[in-house]
Every structure is written in structure tokens, then in C-alpha cells.
Amino acid sequence: MSIKTFLLPDLGEGLTEAELVRWMIAEGDSVIVDQPIAEVETAKSLVEIPCPFEGVVSTLHGDAGQMMLVDEPFISVNTGGVEPEAAAPAAEGALSYREEEMAGTQVPEEAEEDEASGNVLIGYGTGASKPSTSRRRRPRAGSTTAAASSETSTQAVRVINPLVRKLARENSIDIHAVRGTGPEGLVLRADVEALISQGQPDAAAAVPAAPAAAPAPAAAPAPQKPSEGAAAGADKRTGLPVASSQVLSGVRKTIAAAMSTSRREIPEATVWVDVDVTKLLKLRGKIKESEGQAPSIMALISRFAVAGLQRFPELNSRIDVEDDGSLRHTIFDGVNLGFAAQTDRGLVVPNVRDAHKLNANELSAEFARLAGVAREGKAGVSDLSGSTFTINNYGVFNVDGSAAIINYPEAAILGLGRIVEKPWVVNGKIKVRSICELTLSFDHRVCDGGTAAGFLRYVADAMTDPKKALSTL
């Protein structure tokens, strides 16, 4: 019998964890190579995981709803044949992706002789060689061993993501003073952001010191009268019944983090203008009548926006914070056009790669294709990342306008409101025209209001006289 263990693979874009949505097989089932075995939800999308082995499922290393870490056991399969003498989850002499990120603990030589020692997992000490069937229960050195070696070893703070360390460093937070809320005290980005939002409380408040001796038993609290405490199932702050309460995860967690980061780091400003799109609607109608189909209104406006970015490239850019605190402004030669798409899993931003190379019909087709795979939860990481400018059509929700939050780390987002008929002055006379509100939220660090207004005016003028604009593209 030969048992092979498949580790959760690197899902791209530096993602280190994924939530197990469901298993598509069970222990004892037969599987073949490339057979889908599970669905996991990353911070970017819903992903099907294929099996790399053929055989019988021996162990499923996780349950639905559990967070699974990259480079840790995902599934074990009995492939038959003779078991290798030195089976190991990773190649000898090479650190896994997660082990590299956890590097930092100094392991004393004495620990190598511990009878429970197995493969050294950097950042965790050593553990028993027996494989564990629990995702979150990595064996660690016992308290006796830890006490004996406390003067010769130092346990690194439990942080798996280098971006978390960088975030703490940039905000003058001692990472050792952060109380981790992840499994086994793992420090998450949210933990650091919580300290930042609270004004960076000191270490004593963040990490309580271990007492030198066991504290005396506390006196039992006096029983409260019914009026003094919150009712069962009620919120303590408001006293209202709680309809639901859950920790954000998956895409919803990613959206929350991205919006918070955008608001915290980008000094944004917004400009807007009402646009007469009567001629644009008529032009699209003529195209559809003559050709049987026509690009969407959003595709036509996106074509104008891409052309506008070539004239005002500062808005097609990004600002990054360097390690020394300086700001780097990067302007792109080409446009990856993101667009907001509402799905059952939340708001996602697919992006059309090299949008500057596509005409309106091609943009319309890509919008439809990417929106479809996003709503089905089948968009890949590359489909949902890498955009340089975003357009948001909130008119589909029947609203006129919105000061949209910039899709971090981009520099601007263009918003389209609904198209409604309004009285409009044309050549001194009041006429009924189709009007759309156009808004632009932009990073004030990359440009001033004149540049933003120039871009918005260019797009608005093209929407007002689309035939003339398309002839010059």
C-alpha cells in the first residue's frame, strides 16, 4: 500500500489560505487524475481543486467551512504499490511556500533529540512524525521542552504573511505586541489593522503578560437582576435581538479589507457631470438595426474612457509605498479595465486585459463573458486581479450617482448612473433628452483636479457626440 498526500497548492497572487466550501468526494471513493475533488473559496474566487493521483481516497484533511493553508495536507490517496521508504510532503532540502513565510525561529540543537521530533517546520519548533488528520492542530514542542530550552531558543511571532509584517512596520507597531486571532494565535492582517484603527494600543494592552504565579481564584460575581443584563440572544450594546452574527470570510472579507485599505490610504476626491447621451442611444440603435447586434452602452463608454486614459495617463497608474516610506508613482503603458460585477458571493471586479487593444464590440463580448464566469464563481485569479482602472455601472441599480470607493491600489474609478429623460436646454430651447450622470473618484496624489476634470470632460464630450468621437479613435 502506498499513501500519497496532496498539499493544497499555491492558488496564485500570493494567497496563503482558502476556505473549504465542499468536498466532491468522500473517504473510500475511487479517484482519477485531474478529477475535481473539492471547491475552495479564496480571497479572489471560487476554485475547483483537481486530484493529482489515481487511487482510493484515504483521508480528507479538513471539513467544509474550514480554512485550509497552502502547502499543508489537503487529501491523502492510496495509490497502491509499495510505499516509498522516505515519503515526505515536500522535496528534501526545499522549504514549502508556507515554511518560507514562517522562517525566523531559532531551533536549539537539543530539540533535534526530542523523541517527538519530526521534520522541522520553521516557526513552529518540531512535531511528531505521525501525520495529523486535523487541519489546525500542528504539533508543537511541549511545555517541558519549551521551559528547558527557553534560554537557548527564541520562538518567532506567528505571522505567515510578509505583508502583515510590513503593515505593522510601516505603522510603527511591534509585531510581537499584536494578539493573533487566527488559529493557535496566528497574527492576521485584520489584527494589525485593528490596532491601527484603535490608535496603536501599547503592548501591555495588546498582549497580556504571563503571570509569575497562578492567580488567586476570583470571587464569583454577584448575580445580576434581569434588568441589569442584556436579554438572552440580545446585543449587549443596543439591547436588540440579534438576527445573525458571523465572522466575515472569503470574498466578503476581501471586499471589507480592500475598501478599508482604500479609504485609509488613498486621499480621494470626486468630480461629476451630467451628460446628454441622446445621440449615443440613437447611434447604438442604428448599429443594432443595420448589423443585428450592437455593443452595450457600457462598452461604448468604456471605449471612450480607455481613449481618455491615453490622453490623461496619470489616472491609469498606481502609488506604492517603498520600504523606506517613500512613494513610487507607476504609470502604465496600456489599460487593464476592471468593471464591478455583483454576484451572489459579493462584489467582484473582473478585468479585461489589454482593453486598449479592443474595439467596442470586443469590449462588450469580454464584459459579458467575464461577468458570466464571475457570477458562476468560476473566474480565475488572473480574471479578478491586475486591473489598472475600473468602471462601475451603478445605473443598473436604478440610481443616479455615487461617489464610488477607488478599487485599491488603482488611482481612479469611473461611475455611470442610470439614463433618465429630463428637460434639457438645447440651442436655447427646452427639450426632453436622455441624461446620465458621470462621476470620477481619483487619487489626489497622482494628479490635481484639472487633470481629473479634463479626463471626465473628454469622456462626457465623446458620449454627447459619439459619432465624432469614434471617427477619431
UniProtKB/TrEMBL annotation:
Domain Lipoyl-binding: 3-78
Alphabetized PROSITE patterns for the sequence: BIOTINYL_LIPOYL, PSBD
Residue intervals of the Peripheral subunit-binding (PSBD) domain: 159-196
Keywords (A to Z) from UniProt: Acyltransferase, Lipoyl, Transferase
Enzyme class: transferase
Claim: Transferase is one of the keywords in the record: yes
Requisite cofactors: (R)-lipoate
CDD domains in the record: lipoyl_domain
Compositional bias of kind Low complexity: 141-154
Pfam family, one: 2-oxoacid_dh
GO CC list: cytoplasm
Lineage: superkingdom: Bacteria
Family classification: Belongs to the 2-oxoacid dehydrogenase family.
Name of the featured protein: Dihydrolipoamide acetyltransferase component of pyruvate dehydrogenase complex
UniProt lineage: Bacteria, Bacillati, Actinomycetota, Actinomycetes, Micrococcales
